[in-house]
């Protein structure tokens, strides 16, 4: 079987194998060699976004599997949506004049389940400009906060002001649930500065239109030269925890399973994970306006992370925390090892305080701080993290404070 002479990747594991006189080299090693050469020669690494590295849906999911644990359904849905979206951009003009609309995505899931990581990994795979925007800082024009167009400013900056590249990029809008219309709001009494008004403002960006973007961000001023950006081919991925939406889902499910045979249907409903039944009408009941739901046609959920998933996150992905710490200590010729019990302890603490995958990093940093500070200056060449060691180091912080943050 043909394989890379440098890293050993097989033809199935690599995107491309190039044959030489006495072997092959894969695209991964070519890219790495190019980067090393640039560093040695003092050249600036190329940040060109000319070519989109579009894989097939199954290949996209396989790439996501290397970085994101679990969430198979979400990864499958996102892989198809991303493939269909970027396939539009690289196809030749259609003689039938069939216009394929883009598939913006909305991800619903608890904090720390991987919404942001999924979006980041997709952008990394495609090699397109990417930016993350917090919806809570956006306000209507004329109010203190950021104009809605400012999210495109960040995308332009990440694309090094290459407008054509930015127009093929990905924007991740986080905390979308925070701009939902609140129940009982009376627009005649209070002005909805960062809620429904922001949703209305997002519409023209999501559906695709030419937007004048301030190059340096901030409010629009007459003397500032605007940059026109067409959002027709920008993929928008929105995420939010949508705390309490399970009640909306439960209400809808209850109304649908009343009548003959309802008890059997009710038994099939997974009450521990109602998010898997989410639909656009639940988002509307939560407070998103119908127009914005229509421009986010792909709706998927992320499952809550159980103990098995959190432990896998610690050890399995390419960027797993255990692998990162092991590599850092290895650079100082120190062999690092985590006992199985210590890993279970870390996961149990993350679950106990509902910190999610994001909390694993904070817990590990606290446990490893003293060792990372002291050991590079000592003659010790081995460190074993046990349950007692981890428990002792965690006494320095109050995890309830960490949860609140």
General description of the model:
By secondary structure, this protein is an alpha/beta fold. It folds into 3 domains: 1-46; 57-182 and 191-301, P-loop containing nucleotide triphosphate hydrolases (Rossmann fold); 307-404, Helicase, Ruva Protein, domain 3, CATH 1.10.8. It is built from 17 helices and 11 strands. It has helices at 27-41, 57-65, 72-90, 115-126, 150-158, 163-166, 196-207, 245-256, 262-268, 280-286, 290-294, 307-315, 321-330, 340-352, 356-374, 387-394, 399-404; strands at 17-19, 24-26, 105-108, 130-134, 170-174, 210-213, 227-230, 235-240, 298-301, 335-338, 382-385. Helix 14 (340-352) crosses helix 15, helix 14 (340-352) runs parallel beside helix 16 and helix 15 packs across helix 16 (387-394). The protein is globular and about 65 Å long.
